[in-house]
Amino acid sequence: MAKRHLTRRQSWRIQKIQDERSARASRRADLAEESLLGGDLGPEQEGQVIAHFGVQVDVEASSGPLQGQVRRCHRRANLPALVTGDRIVWRADNQQGGVIVALQPRATELHRPDHRGQLKPVAANVDRLVIVFAPLPTPHSNLIDRYLVAAEQAGLEPLLVLNKADLLDQGDSGHIRSWLDDYARLGYRTLCLSAGSGEGLDGLRRELRDHVNVLVGQSGVGKSSLINALLPDVDLRVGALSEMTGKGTHTTTTARLFHFPDGGDLIDSPGIREFGLTHISPDELLEGFIEFRPFLGHCRFRDCQHKHEPGCALLEAVASGEISAGRMNSYRHILASLSGN
Ligand SMILES: Nc1nc2c(ncn2[C@@H]2O[C@H](COP(=O)(O)OP(=O)(O)OP(=O)(O)O)[C@@H](O)[C@H]2O)c(=O)[nH]1
Ligand SMILES: [Zn+2]
Description:
Blueprint: H1 8-36, E1 45-53, E2 56-61, E3 70-75, E4 87-92, E5 97-103, E6 109-113, E7 119-124, E8 128-133, H2 143-154, E9 157-162, H3 174-185, E10 189-192, H4 201-208, E11 212-216, H5 223-230, E12 241-245, E13 248-252, E14 256-259, E15 265-268, H6 270-273, H7 282-288, H8 313-319, H9 325-339
Parallel strand pairs: 3-5, 8-9, 8-11, 9-10, 11-15
Antiparallel strand pairs: 1-2, 1-4, 2-3, 4-5, 6-7, 12-13, 14-15
Helix pairs in contact: 2-7
The structure holds guanosine-5'-triphosphate and zinc ion.
């Protein structure tokens, strides 16, 4: 058979078809890549995680036209697990959701042990630990000091709040008021107020402004009452956050971030309220007693246990009144509880 000769016109048509085909293919590849990269997503913008639900999180837009809006978002697979309070970069989709594409560095992290005892972050970027106590229930000895050490360890500024001030005149609770003065003398911020009567709440509102706050304290001191007074539009119930699901209402332990009307944020969940001392070394414990710091490293013996060694700088400070005997006892109790002896 004779070799088929194509006319110039035929060659031109074949070439044209091939060109069109490859243009289509490359357009398809472009489209596929675009959808992989999120071609139907809006521009990158900043946001904050305000709640999380398994693989999804609620993101509040921090700036731009969506500022203040909340979107339920997925995260890119290469990102670590996110927690409430995280500052992130995200892109809105066109279905009221979005994708989180980057996690900003965390200024602080609050940790809790999970069911296997592994420490896991539960909230990020908190900077204020509001330690609530009251004349009733009578404070557990050392509890406030434990919280203070935990705050120092986590890099949070503590605020000591003595609630139920209306009960201070009853019974023998006068010494509780003097505790507050002792802590104020150490340099801690303190407030005495009453969630019940509302007395002193304005001072608390001012203290919470410009901070991301967490409230902790033993059960019954009035944390829910305080939060309800500060966040009148949020029904917190006592200690439980409820979430509607297809199966009905159930209680979840997810941490949520709320904005106070007068400024400042609160991150709250039953898990967060249980924030306390975990995995701390004896040295970190010593550092957590702020008035001990000037004396650390000045004992005669480098391995001083600060029990009854001669030349112990801490014991000398107790003797001279620079460290209170109460705080020294508290340190010893906590140390013993850490090492289990
Ligand atoms: N007299 C008095 N009672 C208060 C005050 N604040 C709270 N209470 C009461 O203290 C009790 C405990 O308050 P809650 O707010 O549930 O305490 P909580 O710290 O949230 O407790 P948990 O949810 O168990 O952690 C309630 O009966 C409150 O009414 C106060 O300022 N004065
Ligand atoms: Zn010593």
